[in-house]
Design brief:
4-stranded antiparallel sheet; 7 helices; alpha+beta
């Protein structure tokens, strides 16, 4: 779906990933974008799928990020997944896969009818070749975002250890 460049720029201005880029840089970024609509309940990214070489930025709607959880699988009545976070307008996802080119680490599902801006990595990398500052700003912001998430994971791990959850991991690994 074709995009309105000015509308994409306005969404990018709300995204922490593009914080520090001016309107002209955001317009350059927006020229290579497309949009895709996802009805409620649509799985956009499946955990362990190969990377899609795409950064996704939410223009409209609500998205939930979840992971499969072995411990939850063994609990009666559990659906086998754990919600990590909910994302909304201006939030981005798919950023880890564009950095490490590994399979996706989570499942991403539309929790409402959603419109997502798709930024192909080929377009991003071609911009970075011409203007290293764009790459520096975006990668710095991605690093900050990933560090923030890592700190949150470390916090949870620390609390899981104090709750005795590793015993459950040990039991799971024996089977």
């Amino acid at each position: 779906m074709a995009v309105d460049i000015n509308q994409v720029v306005q969404v990018f201005k709300k995204s922490r990933i593009f914080d520090g880029l001016g309107d002209e840089d955001l317009k350059k970024m927006a020229t290579g974008c497309s949009e895709q609509s996802f009805p409620i309940g649509t799985v956009i990214i499946e955990e362990n799928d190969p990377p899609k070489e795409m950064l996704y930025v939410i223009r409209q709607g609500e998205i939930v990020v979840s992971v499969a959880q072995a411990i939850v699988d063994s609990c009666e009545g559990a659906d086998g997944s754990a919600m990590i976070t909910t994302l909304g307008e201006g939030d981005a996802f798919g950023e880890i896969a564009i950095i490490d080119e590994m399979p996706h680490s989570a499942t991403v599902t539309a929790m409402s009818d959603s419109i997502v801006i798709l930024l192909p990595m080929s377009h991003f990398y071609s911009l970075v070749e011409k203007d290293k500052n764009i790459g520096y700003v975006v990668i710095r912001n991605l690093a900050k975002l990933i560090c923030q998430r890592l700190r949150g994971s470390n916090f949870l791990t620390k609390h899981f250890v104090s709750w005795g959850v590793p015993d459950a991991f040990e039991e799971q690994s024996k089977s």
